[in-house]
Amino acid sequence: MRNETSRLGNIILNHQTELLEGWVSTLVARTGRREANAETELRQQASRFLSLVGQAVTTAGTDNIDSNAWQEARQLLSDISATRVRKGHSSIETANFVFSLKEPLNGYLQAELSDDPAALVSEITATNALFDMLGLFTVETYQKLREQVIMRQQQELLELSTPVVQLWKDVLALPLIGTLDSARTQVVMESLLQKIVDTGALIAIIDITGVPTVDTLVAQHLLKTVAAARLMGADCIISGIRPQIAQTIVHLGVNLEDVITKATLADAFQVALKRTGATISQKDE
User: What region holds the STAS domain (predicted)?
Assistant: First the structure.
């Protein structure tokens, strides 16, 4: 295998310029991205990859891309995948960066080993297997990074969808819109508790006007949030209790007796002001 793989390594290192030009042209044609900056970056990545693969093949062969000899090549593919995830490239485009190199390499192998069919078949088989492994590594890395991006975006959306605002001195409001599940409850609780710590608020109004339905699980999530806020020294008022929600809570047997509830945020705000000793007066015209 070493004699065969040394041929591949020699081809890559001895024909790097010609391989690079053909490879980059193929990549640009397939992706349709002809921006000058994009092509320059692509050329730099391709040139570096060719060099690293040539060295790794010559040193360690093609059997195990997890070996130390392939570390730099793997790292480069990881960096390329990360860049392409950020720029919105597809997984197919990312994988083609590796897979499209097989065809020109096989062409050079055919030219060099045309008089030795057995060696040619063996070398092409080993080359295809190598770049299949490298391509799969690239796809797996891309998918993991993409999942991380999606999870981070979901977390950011959760945080944006649960803003805690200060309505008055010592009074906070947390308007909830949409379904309240376990993951979002955790974000809600963390956001509210942190705001209580930052402001020293005494009252927190949790407004569920925008929550479409309240079931047992949602009610339990609300009670947990109320309990956590109380441990931090702030009482909670739940506003936005519509008739159908009130009937549902009663039907479910959820105990909200020790929690102040109001129909509207305005009503809850008035209660909060009274409890903090503040008053608002309307100036007569």
Answer: 161-272
